[in-house]
């Protein structure tokens, strides 16, 4: 798999999960002027992985891509049906979602391009990071297996690795490529969310037209 194909598949999974959970995030952030459009991606990724993590933690079902896909499908069907039936689906909201998606893609692509000059996973804690990411991608139990101590679970903070390991699992991207794409996702998500927090804070002061 080329890095271009990997980046496309990775981003499509991000976009699919985000759009599937947009209605739920919109309801959760309904008090915000932009109804959570800029915060949707991190909330959606967490919402897709957390139930699967919880079920696997209690040994109800194995931690798997199938469980996460099922969670996303159920959330998408319920959310979009509930938001369409009362006709809460308006053009301004859809326009906000599209603008946020374009901005997210541009930030993601810019970081991938920049990272392409130094893609090596070397130095500091990067080898440990990619090992934990690889373990999270193939985990069937929670906590994921410790890559440094065979037969034992990870005895460390691992949820961040698990989130992006889930994206890698669903997109079929190898850990050594997914590591850099995860960094691009963190950059893109943080930039958009930071702008959204600032915009939501100042928007009501900019006049009634912008506060809609």
Characterization of the model:
The structure is a single chain. The protein is mainly alpha-helical. It has helices at residues 3-28, 40-57, 65-84, 91-115, 126-138, 159-171, 175-202. The chain starts with a helix and ends in a 10-residue tail after the last helix. The mean pLDDT is 89.
Gist?
This protein is mostly helical. Helix content is 67%, strand content 0%.
Mean pLDDT: 89
Number of continuous helical runs: 7
Radius of gyration: 18 Å
**C-alpha termini separation:** 45 Å
Parts with pLDDT < 50 across at least 5 consecutive residues:
none
Coarse shape: globular
Task: Give the strand content.
Answer: under 5%
Q: Helical percent range?
A: 55-70%
Q: Which structural class do you get from the secondary structure elements?
A: mainly alpha
Number of strands: 0
Sheet with the most strands? none
Helix-strand pattern: HHHHHHH
């Amino acid at each position: 798999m080329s890095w271009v194909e990997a980046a496309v598949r990775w981003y499509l999974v991000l976009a699919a999960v985000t759009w599937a959970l947009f209605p739920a995030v919109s309801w959760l952030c309904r008090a915000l002027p932009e109804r959570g459009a800029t915060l949707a991606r991190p909330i959606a990724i967490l919402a897709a992985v957390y139930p699967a993590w919880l079920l696997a933690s209690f040994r109800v079902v194995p931690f798997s891509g199938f469980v996460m896909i099922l969670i996303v499908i159920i959330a998408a069907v319920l959310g979009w049906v509930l938001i369409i039936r009362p006709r809460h689906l308006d053009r301004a909201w859809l326009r906000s979602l599209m603008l946020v998606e374009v901005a997210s893609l541009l930030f993601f692509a810019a970081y991938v391009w920049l990272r392409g000059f130094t893609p090596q996973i070397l130095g500091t804690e990067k080898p440990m990071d990619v090992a934990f990411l690889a373990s999270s991608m193939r985990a069937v139990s929670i906590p994921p297996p410790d890559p440094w101590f065979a037969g034992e679970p990870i005895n460390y903070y691992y949820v961040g690795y698990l989130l992006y390991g889930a994206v890698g699992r669903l997109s079929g991207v190898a850990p050594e490529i997914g590591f850099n794409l995860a960094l691009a996702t963190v950059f893109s998500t943080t930039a958009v969310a930071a702008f959204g927090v600032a915009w939501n804070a100042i928007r009501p002061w900019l006049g009634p037209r912008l506060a809609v």
